[in-house]
From TrEMBL:
Keywords: Kinase, Transferase. The keyword Kinase applies. This is DhaL domain-containing protein. GO terms for molecular function: glycerone kinase activity; triokinase activity. It catalyses: D-glyceraldehyde + ATP = D-glyceraldehyde 3-phosphate + ADP + H(+); dihydroxyacetone + ATP = dihydroxyacetone phosphate + ADP + H(+). The keyword Transferase applies. Residues 94-298 form the DhaL domain.
Length: 308
C-alpha cells in the first residue's frame, strides 16, 4: 500500500480533531495525517455518548476493507454478492443468531466491569462502547437484516457494518476490520460449508489487517494478544478435534492470554501513557474479546447435537 493511502486510511494517525486527546498508537509510531479538512464530516464526541463516536466517511472501516486488496487478502466484492463462499442451513442460522444474542447480552452484562477495568488505563468507557455495539446488534436483528441470509460472506459483511456504525471509534473500526477479513475469507472458500479451518484463516486475516491499520501487535497489551493466541491455537488444532471441544479449549487459551495482559507493558492505546503500577487489571479490550468468545462457546456447547 502506498504511503499516501496509509496516511489517509490509518485508524490511528495523529490528528487535530477536536475530540481527539492523543493518538492510540505511541506517537513516535503514528504516521502524520492532518484532518482539518474533515471537520465537516467528522462527528465530535464525549467520553460517554453511548458509542456515537464514529469514523468520518474517509476513515470508514468499510473503505479500509476495499484497501485490503492491496494486502492480497482476497475478494472484496460488493455487499450485494450472494454468490460466493459457503453457506449455513436453517439450524446453523439459528445457532448463529443465538451466538449474536449471547455476545450482545454478555457485553451488556459486563458494561460495569469493562468500565472499571478501563478506568485505570483509559477513559473508563470501554463498557459503554461495547454495549453500544451490542445495542446495534439487537437493532440489526430486530430489523430482520439477517433474515433469509445464509451466505457467511454476506452475514459477516452485515455484522461488520453494524459494528462500525453502532460501536464507532477505534474499537468499532478494529472489529469491523476483523469481520470484513473473515467475510473475505468466506468469499474465497470453495467448499459449500465453512470448516473450523475456514474460520481460523479468517481470524488470521483479521488479525493481520488490524495489525497493519491499527499499528499494534502481539505483546502490546491489546485485544490482539488473545486474538493472536487464538489464531496460534487454531492453526495447530483446528483439524484435530470436534468443533465444540475445539472452541472450548480455545476459550481456555484466550482466557489465559487475557489474564497475562495484566502484567504486560502497554505499547499501544492510552494505557501506553499510564504508569505501569496503575495498570491493575487485564486489558479491558482483551477482556471484552474473551467475554464475546465465551458467549459463543456457551451457545456451541448448548447446540452440541447439531455438530455431531
Amino acid at each position: 500500500m502506498i504511503t499516501n493511502d496509509l496516511k489517509n486510511y490509518c485508524l490511528d494517525s495523529k490528528t487535530k480533531a477536536l475530540s481527539w486527546v492523543r493518538p492510540v498508537m505511541i506517537e513516535k509510531d503514528a504516521p502524520e495525517c492532518e484532518v482539518d479538512e474533515l471537520k465537516s464530516t467528522t462527528t465530535t464526541i464525549s467520553s460517554h455518548n453511548n458509542g456515537d463516536n464514529r469514523f468520518s466517511s474517509r476513515y470508514s472501516a468499510r473503505l479500509l476493507g476495499e484497501k485490503l486488496n492491496n494486502l492480497n487478502l482476497g475478494d472484496t466484492s460488493s455487499l450485494g454478492d450472494y454468490a460466493s463462499g459457503p453457506q449455513i442451513d436453517e439450524g446453523g442460522h439459528k445457532i448463529l443468531m443465538k451466538c449474536i444474542h449471547g455476545v450482545s447480552n454478555s457485553l451488556v452484562a459486563n458494561t460495569g466491569l469493562l468500565n472499571t477495568m478501563d478506568s485505570s488505563c483509559g477513559d473508563g468507557d470501554c463498557g459503554h462502547t461495547f454495549a453500544a455495539g451490542a445495542r446495534g446488534m439487537y437493532k440489526m436483528m430486530s430489523d430482520g437484516k439477517l433474515n433469509g441470509v445464509f451466505k457467511l460472506k454476506k452475514i459477516m459483511e452485515i455484522l461488520s457494518e453494524t459494528v462500525e456504525d453502532s460501536m464507532g471509534g477505534t474499537s468499532g473500526g478494529i472489529y469491523s476490520l476483523l469481520l470484513t477479513a473473515i467475510s473475505q475469507e468466506m468469499g474465497t472458500e470453495t467448499k459449500p460449508t465453512a470448516t473450523n479451518e475456514t474460520w481460523a484463516r479468517g481470524l488470521v486475516r483479521g488479525m493481520e489487517s488490524i495489525m497493519r491499520y491499527g499499528g499494534a501487535g502481539p505483546g502490546s497489551r491489546t485485544m490482539l494478544d488473545p486474538l493472536h493466541a487464538l489464531c496460534t491455537f487454531l492453526d495447530k488444532e483446528s483439524h484435530n478435534t470436534d468443533t465444540v471441544t475445539l472452541w472450548q479449549n480455545a476459550a481456555k487459551v484466550v482466557d489465559k492470554e487475557t489474564k497475562r495482559t495484566k502484567n504486560m507493558e502497554a505499547k499501544a492505546g492510552r494505557a501506553a501513557y499510564v504508569r505501569r503500577e496503575n495498570l491493575i487489571y487485564p486489558d479491558p479490550g482483551a477482556h471484552a474479546f474473551f467475554v464475546a468468545l465465551t458467549a459463543i462457546v456457551n451457545v456451541l456447547v448448548d447446540s452440541k447435537k447439531y455438530f455431531e
